[in-house]
Amino acid sequence: MTTYHATDAFSVPELYLLAAAFGGNVLFGLPEKQIYQLRGQEVFDEAHKRLIEKEILTADGKITKAGAMIIQAMEYYHQSKKYVRINNLMFAFSEHNDDELILMIEIEEQSLYKLFVVSKAIVLKMLGEKFPIISREPQEKEKSFLKEELSHQERHETEQLELGNMLTNLEMFHLSEARQEITNPAYYQQWLIFTKNEKLIMVDAVQRKYYHASQYWFLKVLFDEMEFPYKEAQ
Question: Which one, of 19, 14, 142, 123, lies nearest residue 78 by Cα?
């Protein structure tokens, strides 16, 4: 299995120009195309010029071999029925290969992105390295429960924490759901995950509920959503 990655970051107008090759006018998680259309044709002319400089397009506008690979990855991203976001990493799911994920990394907020097609085994390893909370050793007592809602006092104390870079944001979007409303957990969930006094805390950001969670429950949520084979965790 090969791992393809783009050699450069792409602006949003560049990505929409590439998506036009397969008729894609919406790219999940990116600003709307209309925002850039309202700014005038010069925005896309400049994006076209940059794609030629990156050898994604030829001088006469034809797609290069590298460009074709990127466009195919974008098409798979566009076709995904589910997306999972972990901090600045957005994952899409290919119907063409169950062993791979399409990864869109937000380099600069709402403006610059990198695109990868990566095997799930590599993604799992990468996440474990990037987010130490995934590799956290569970406490012995975590074997006896999945999650427990915090007491009023514990919640109050937790709300006062300044978490900064300690916070892991996990969001799940299921676009095949008919009722696409934030309050429908079958369509959307957001969990804020961190540790406090060695306890694993998971906050349901939509329902505003605070839990002391076991590492096993956290990993089950993550593995189920990412569609990781459980055997790879051993």
Answer: 19
